[in-house]
């Protein structure tokens, strides 16, 4: 082994994960061979709300190859509890029972009614068509505003209401701010439901251990530790009997941050049948049985002076829960409460969120959860305020930005941001897009009456990344710790093992964590192996979501590696017969000051392994564990600017330029950051222009397949120009903030603001997402009268 003089953090090292993935050598749940496994399929309700009056399985059971079939009543005794909600945001929140398989009543199209186990997937799917179910249709409601009207159909009659909870927050004297204001601007903005649609659908394979009595669950999940703990609770077994493995996971976007009915069913049926059971989601399953993203009606108001200085803000949300509360459903909208004030400095703020049940698929986390919705609303109303005052949209934002701060600063929502320097970030984005030149071209096109107009849209944002502090989580009633665990071991060979509690699904943890450990230990990243996604290998962890992996999990690796160095220093001093204070450590070697005497950390690792010459009381082995629970969230921020061309005769919109300047503190791997931003921006553009889960009058999805649900294709996306500033976070020793969700947060408001700005001179002041050509054209026609 030799040490290296290179430093790896900050370098764009190629992702070590990619070679297997791009050559088809990845390991995904559906590709894991398991001889004798039974294939599970779920019969789903075609009605949004109905009583189940009878289920006849006889024809399905008679089909050759079918091993078993069950109703919800047949399996009720297999479950100790229903699927739990892990974020009951208020004491009086209403939480309906959520059995993994419906027993008496279905509450949305796609609710599971019966299951089939067969020798192969095709037979199991054929058997579903032979099950006869009789329903008694019940009234249903699909709109959050209509659901709160007197006399509205009740999603759960036993609750007596469709109101799930009300969560308030207020700082300062909001009423006084609005009374003193020269101008008050109000807006109503919609966050349409979107379908997460990762490249790899959900999948689960459960294998029983006939000797030990335990089970191994292979799942395409973001949260193997959550699945182990909650899965054990649902089926009523010790968590020590469950091992969860998340192999290669082909994207998650929040949809795989959950414990689903199919995972509980597969586990219960593997236990009952004493055989492996597997289930793989179809795209049709995904559109009705996997959680949807977003789903909010946002009412917002700002009070300001004539000069554009904001005095106060009011936010009133209706958040669509869907028919049940999944793991985090109630908390998603509440999570955004702290960022509706954005990057802007003012005195008074109020926020109220009401959760509402509807007869639709449950909502839950989707990339940028809560913060994306917040950024969209505050950036839309900043443009509305600028139009009301006759000011430039950038000017209004610049005069309201917080001044530079490098330590915690309390913001209007009452929380403390960790650090921020917003104006240089925004001005850099304006410089890259050549803001003044675009405005000049816009003026010229308007004066010429050009059929194709251009608009410029700004998306400023900050987000509560690094989802972590356990005390803060408890304060908002999130039933989960926010720490993250890591173990770093130097082996007898001098190589390094890193065990992390984070569980990647495309983020590049193996590469980035090897860079972090390599720099701390003075070795090459190729000498570092990163182990993850297996609760037997990494028994402790809080997994991956909320832009937390690097600022919590990666920092924990950093801290564990430095603990290894500290122990190695003590052993090295003993071996060199020197004082620890006289030792320097550089490039993997301890050296006695003023001499050539030294020893490599690999030699120390060997000495720790042999253990025959260690300091008195020193334990053998060169290994360290760390659990990091940060003192605050991190708050990455940025400015995204979109230049849009809009054909006023057809409503067709095309992005001409897209610039994103982001600040995520210190960067470990710039290429990984760029990849995360590209993906997030593509998703934000998708929501802004193309994506929407829609339903007919009976609650049937009208975007039930990918033939109906439109994504942004490569041809729809512009070249994305990236820039950055660096404002280190004081919450952790690496000064990192996280970047996984930022692209999806800043892009949507930039795109929609650009569309509206292109046709604002025609009288258009509002377009809902997705800004389709038809919707834009209609807005132009309505503005013209």
From TrEMBL:
<feature type="domain" description="Aldehyde oxidase/xanthine dehydrogenase a/b hammerhead">
    <location>
        <begin position="23"/>
        <end position="139"/>
    </location>
</feature>
<dbReference type="InterPro" id="IPR000674">
    <property type="entry name" value="Ald_Oxase/Xan_DH_a/b"/>
</dbReference>
<protein>
    <submittedName>
        <fullName>Molybdopterin-dependent oxidoreductase</fullName>
    </submittedName>
</protein>
<dbReference type="InterPro" id="IPR016208">
    <property type="entry name" value="Ald_Oxase/xanthine_DH-like"/>
</dbReference>
<dbReference type="Pfam" id="PF20256">
    <property type="entry name" value="MoCoBD_2"/>
</dbReference>
<keyword id="KW-0500">Molybdenum</keyword>
<dbReference type="InterPro" id="IPR008274">
    <property type="entry name" value="AldOxase/xan_DH_MoCoBD1"/>
</dbReference>
<dbReference type="Pfam" id="PF01315">
    <property type="entry name" value="Ald_Xan_dh_C"/>
</dbReference>
<dbReference type="Pfam" id="PF02738">
    <property type="entry name" value="MoCoBD_1"/>
</dbReference>
<dbReference type="InterPro" id="IPR046867">
    <property type="entry name" value="AldOxase/xan_DH_MoCoBD2"/>
</dbReference>
